[in-house]
């Protein structure tokens, strides 16, 4: 009986321990995790669990132009992706903390040069490095996993930021929306396309879209 009980409970305990040992990374509502070195992300997320050790992740500031509006009629403002490098241990929680932003002017200014800190569950600062990532093409068709892979490969060189030449082989390029076959897009790319089209639409088209989305 004792052996049977151990056989039943040991796998569960090992699974629970493995889950507990993950490094959990969280970002606030106005940020997105676009890609990580350890786990391939299909869609931008606010939280991800990763194995311990050195971490390389891509994040982006992404906020309604008016951060206190529920209608979001003014669209969104996004920053360039940022490569964040840090080290985390088993069971550690890593939280991205950004300053409070209250006005459309602050949103636009912050998106040009986001700053933030990383802290653990106790509020202690976690050392990290941040690099702004430049790439050719549009956010709506960008493969952020490929961009991260290229960026990590370039960090050993004197220039840590991707050059136009380095990006040329990634397949990331500007695409005319009228020529896009949406069936070829990943969920992340489809979401980015929809958001980009909405962000660049005029007020009438945004209202028409909202009426369509709500079935009005």
Automatic annotation (TrEMBL):
InterPro entries found in the cross-reference section: UPF0319
Signal peptide: 1-21
Name under which the protein is recorded: DUF2057 domain-containing protein
Keywords for the protein's UniProt record, in alphabetical order: Signal
Record carries keyword Amino-acid biosynthesis: no
Similarity section: Belongs to the UPF0319 family.
Pfam families: DUF2057
PANTHER family cross-referenced by the UniProt entry: UPF0319 PROTEIN YCCT
Superkingdom of the source species: Bacteria
Presence of the UniProt keyword ATP-binding in the record: no
UniProt feature coiled coil, ranges: none
């Amino acid at each position: 009986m004792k052996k049977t009980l151990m056989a039943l409970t040991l796998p569960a305990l090992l699974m629970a321990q493995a889950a507990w040992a993950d490094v959990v990374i969280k970002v606030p509502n106005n940020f997105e995790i676009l890609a990580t070195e350890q786990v391939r992300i299909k869609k931008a997320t606010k939280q991800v669990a990763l194995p311990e050790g050195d971490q390389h992740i891509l994040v982006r500031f992404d906020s309604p132009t008016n951060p206190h509006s529920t209608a979001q009629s003014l669209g969104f403002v996004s920053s360039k992706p940022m490569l964040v490098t840090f080290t985390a241990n088993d069971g550690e929680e890593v939280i991205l903390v950004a300053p409070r932003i209250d006005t459309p002017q602050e949103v636009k200014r912050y998106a040009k040069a986001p700053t933030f800190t990383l802290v653990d569950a106790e509020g202690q600062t976690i050392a990290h490095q941040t690099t702004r990532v430049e790439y050719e093409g549009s956010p709506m068709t960008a493969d952020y996993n490929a961009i991260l892979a290229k960026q990590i490969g370039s960090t050993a060189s004197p220039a840590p930021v991707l050059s136009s030449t380095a990006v040329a082989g990634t397949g990331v390029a500007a695409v005319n929306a009228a020529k896009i076959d949406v069936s070829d897009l990943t969920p992340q790319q489809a979401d980015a396309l929809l958001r980009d089209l909405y962000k660049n639409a005029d007020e009438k088209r945004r209202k028409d879209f909202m009426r369509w989305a709500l079935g009005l």
